[in-house]
Amino acid sequence: MAHILIVEDEKSINDLIAMNLSLVGHTSEQAYDGKEALEYLKQNTYSLLIMDIMLPVLDGFSLMQYVPKGTPVIFLTAMGNLSDKVKGLKLGADDYIVKPFETIELLARIEAILRRTHQSLNIFSLDGTVVNLESRVVTVNGSEIELTLREYELLEILIKNKNIALSREKLLKLAWEYDYFGETRTVDVHIQKLRKKLNWDNRIKTVYKMGYRLEADQ
């Protein structure tokens, strides 16, 4: 599952891409001009950008200089001449698809890029919370959230074992790196802090007489 920014001024195309990304398990955010996309890039981390070239306010070629290093980009545009394609690739785009396009081809190219860059493994997104498992940056609705070392370790364990019930003893051993000696309240305290900071009251479920489970749709 990847978190993808779609930058396309034609709403019907933007919505179509977002819908299809959701169907295959990805999350996305939608920008309709270059300036809006720039604000998203300042506030969030993405696995991939799908971007038109002819955008209002700030065009796709100009926007490339603001894309974080290592973030793959697919240009999706009606500009199909060779010189534009070469320019886009020289600016650092990973792929270039000319409109009109087949959705199945776009999805295939997205998956190929994510596999190659391993981006889909590094970003976890759920209900407005985005966790970059490589940089350890956590944002909620675009704002970075400070977590303690133990809170983050616990969060990462829950993410990597999403939809699996984990006992308090298991969480202690994995996050605190020591065996169970009778005190598991520290796990409960940290879980409550994570629920509050990430707005995950309905996502981190208590498993009766056992422990906790992170419920995710993916």
From TrEMBL:
What residue stretches are annotated with the OmpR/PhoB-type domain?
A: 121-216
Entry-linked InterPro entries: CheY-like_superfamily, OmpR/PhoB-type_DNA-bd, Sig_transdc_resp-reg_receiver, WalR-like, WH-like_DNA-bd_sf
Which residues are modified to 4-aspartylphosphate?
52
Residue ranges the record marks as coiled coil: none
The UniProt record lists the Response regulatory domain at: 3-114
Q: Which residues bind DNA?
A: 121-216
Any one GO cellular component localisation term in the record = cytosol
One GO MF term on file is: phosphorelay response regulator activity
Task: Quote the function comment for this protein.
Answer: May play the central regulatory role in sporulation. It may be an element of the effector pathway responsible for the activation of sporulation genes in response to nutritional stress. Spo0A may act in concert with spo0H (a sigma factor) to control the expression of some genes that are critical to the sporulation process.
Protein's name in the database: Stage 0 sporulation protein A homolog
> What's the source species for this entry?
Desulfocucumis palustris
